[in-house]
Amino acid sequence: MRRELSSLDMKFLLEEFKALTNGRIDQIYQDKELFLFRFHVTGKGRLMLKVILPSLIFLSKHKKDFPTTPPHFCTVLRKHLGSARLRKIEQISSERILVFHFEAKEKKLLLYFELFSKGNIILCDDKNIIINAYEKRDWATRSIRPKKEYKLPPTQINIFSLKESQLKELLENTKKDSLVKFLASEVGLGGLYSEEICLRLNLDKTLKPSKADASKLFKEINSLINTKPKPAVIEGKDVVPFSLNYYKNEKVKEFKTFSEALDEVFSKDKIALKLEKISSAHDQKLEQAQRILESQLATIKNLQKKIDENTAKGEFIYEHYTEIKSILDEIKKAREKYSWKELKEKLKNHKVIKRIIEKDNSVVIDIK
After folding, report:
1. Which residues have a Cβ under 8 Å from the Cβ of 223 and sit 6 or more positions away?
2. What DSSP element (H or E) covers 40?
């Protein structure tokens, strides 16, 4: 069973992860290389993002037992991201790197998921300075350590913005001895999708890259990238976001989303982790409490607005008390001599008194 995601897989997952946008972090769990980020999203309820380092990430419906005392890195994430709201998710170029943009307590934070090699999770501030990381490491070109600026690893070709002229140049200059190796490493498609391209074009995968038709190859790469999602589990072998000729003779089980397919394999079977039985009744009560809380917060906000408005009115009246009292005294004396109808006529062009409301024994004045 393939246990890593390609950059193309992540492109399809990114669309599914948009369901988390504007959700708040409800809780974060960690057990060694397994992380679970629990979100509450208005109108959608509770959603969970599961990360299994070094290279798996997907939305999950299953939660295992986690250590009672969380590891240090988990406590750091909880401290900084507790109740943080997720504003945006993006994939860096066509790298196997996702970045989540959060707003938390009047500050912005970035959470990077590096899902290649040994895998890593890096928390940064809005200036891209590292706060903490799951793994601290050093390379010649970058250092993943607190207080250091987060830098991306050396980037490869971006297959999502690749131009035909670029592909042609790469084909002419590559040192790879076969088309499949060229597509996998230099174009960045990975082994599976490189094999698929060769099958779709009916090309020998050992063909020398310089012999390939750049135009046809370019069109097929774009066709692959824009394939309509049709997630499936290939029994005992793979989890894929769309149908592949490579697996056309294999037993396939289809799913509504790519995350559901990954969740089926990596949350349910022994390869991953035992499921925790979660009481649905308990979850429903929590959801109800969350809705009540949101309603109460909205009510408090409206009341505070009214308080602010009435406070402003009170302060205005206090500042102009003498002027207002003088006007009211003047009207009171006039009422001893005239009817409301007569007063209306006499005060028709008054600079301050704009309207008389007889039924309420009140007047509308305009003081600037």
Report:
1. 200
2. strand 34-41
Residues 253-291: tens digit of each pLDDT: 999 999 999 999 998 644 444 433 434 455 667 777 778
| Distance, CA of 38 to chain centre | 12
Quick one: angle between helices 7-17 and 214-225, nearest 10?
A: 30
Q: Determine the number of helices (DSSP H) and then strands (DSSP E) in the chain.
A: 10, 16
End-to-end CA distance of the chain: 76
Tally the C-alpha atoms within 13 A of residue 258's C-alpha that lie toward its C-beta. 23
* Amino acid identity, position 112: Y
**Contact criterion met (CB below 8 Å) for 32 and 296:** no
136-159 pLDDT tens trace: 999 999 999 999 999 999 888 999
| Tokens encoding 274 | 């035992």
Closest of 17, 155, 40, 164 to residue 97, by C-alpha = 155
Tokens 């824009």 locate to 226
The helix/strand/coil state of 249 is coil
172 touches 201 (CB < 8 A): no
